[in-house]
């Protein structure tokens, strides 16, 4: 009887500790600090730099707009840009239902520049709520402060679009774990473009290549699989798996030249290019080719130069899996 009584005490203590931990995670986190008190001047240079980054590098406009999934690679629709609404849910392998919010002035008029900066670089929204890292704040928090300022300056110039987006909801236990995900920014200066490899590494982080071209578990990249491909994008028509973009000669892009790499992107920016229709019975690639195609050739070359320095991963990928 004494053993059972002590076992009961132990279980009660464990339950109490778990309760305290859950309460702390739910109420005290996330904690990345207060939003900075900043006012970003919308200079022409900043807005133009932000336009380039948001549309062709960080591709903020990709997720925060509507895409035409009836055509190859889901090109961004010309109307409602920045109004949000793209859905990332359990069918796609995410632990919940997450919506890209409206980032036009209609929704952000009440946000300060500091609140936007904190959300983009640490993953904490205006009301202190944790954002799920389908939003690349871990990456953006390692970028150059001036680049983030430029993105904010640009989105402040977007035409307001009156669209209310549903609230994102994480499944259990991620609805608790999500509060541990935001982290303080570790900003770093943008490398000189003359240091091609270092600059390419900066761009690979900004573009989010690792986020999609790796194996994932519950939305998080599995360490050791970075850039080796394997993330599965599910749809009613089937599954599209991201390719291996390391320089492995048999299973990656090790036989590609720099020109091959650049031309693969620029083909989608060629004069007269129109994305071809994709039947609903076939899976479509989520890769926003038409957006990345707008990257400068020098930036694409820098990315290729960096990829050449990454350890090749042997990982054969079957790209399309039909239902």
From TrEMBL:
InterPro entries: Cyt_c-like_dom (IPR009056), Cyt_c-like_dom_sf (IPR036909), Cytochrome_c-type_DH (IPR051459). Keywords: Heme, Iron, Metal-binding. The keyword Disulfide bond does not apply. It comes from the Bacteria. Gene3D superfamilies: Cytochrome c-like domain. The keyword Ribosomal protein does not apply. Residues 45-159, 195-311 form the Cytochrome c domain. One of its GO terms (molecular function) is electron transfer activity. Pfam families: Cytochrom_C. This is C-type cytochrome. It comes from Dyadobacter sp. 676. The lineage of its organism: Bacteria, Pseudomonadati, Bacteroidota, Cytophagia, Cytophagales.
């Amino acid at each position: 009887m004494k053993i059972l009584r002590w076992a009961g005490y132990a279980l009660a203590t464990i339950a109490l500790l778990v309760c305290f931990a859950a309460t702390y995670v739910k109420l005290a986190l996330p904690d990345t600090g207060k939003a900075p008190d900043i006012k970003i001047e919308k200079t022409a240079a900043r807005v133009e730099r932000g336009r380039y980054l948001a549309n062709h590098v960080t591709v903020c406009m990709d997720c925060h707009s509507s895409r035409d999934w009836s055509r190859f690679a889901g090109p961004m629709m010309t109307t409602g840009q920045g109004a949000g609404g793209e859905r990332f849910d359990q069918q796609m392998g995410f632990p919940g239902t997450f919506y890209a919010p409206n980032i036009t002035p209609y929704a952000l008029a009440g946000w300060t520049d500091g609140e936007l900066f904190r959300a983009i670089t640490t993953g904490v929204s205006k009301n202190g709520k944790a954002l799920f890292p389908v939003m690349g704040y871990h990456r953006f928090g390692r970028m150059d402060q001036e680049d983030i300022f430029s993105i904010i300056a640009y989105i402040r110039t977007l035409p307001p679009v009156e669209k209310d987006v549903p609230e994102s909801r994480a499944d259990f236990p991620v609805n608790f774990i999500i509060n541990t995900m935001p982290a303080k920014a570790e900003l770093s200066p943008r490398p000189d473009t003359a240091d091609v490899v270092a600059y390419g590494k900066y761009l690979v982080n900004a573009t989010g290549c690792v986020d999609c071209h790796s194996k994932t578990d519950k939305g998080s990249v599995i360490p050791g699989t970075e850039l080796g491909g394997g993330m599965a994008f599910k749809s009613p028509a089937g599954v599209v798996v991201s390719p291996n973009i390391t320089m492995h000669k048999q299973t990656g892009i090790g036989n590609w030249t720099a020109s091959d790499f650049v031309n693969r992107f620029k083909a989608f920016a060629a004069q007269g290019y129109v994305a071809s229709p994709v039947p609903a019975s076939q899976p479509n690639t989520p890769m926003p080719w038409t957006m990345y195609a707008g990257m400068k050739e020098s930036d694409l070359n820098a990315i290729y130069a960096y990829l050449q320095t990454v350890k090749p991963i042997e990982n054969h990928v079957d790209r399309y899996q039909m239902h």
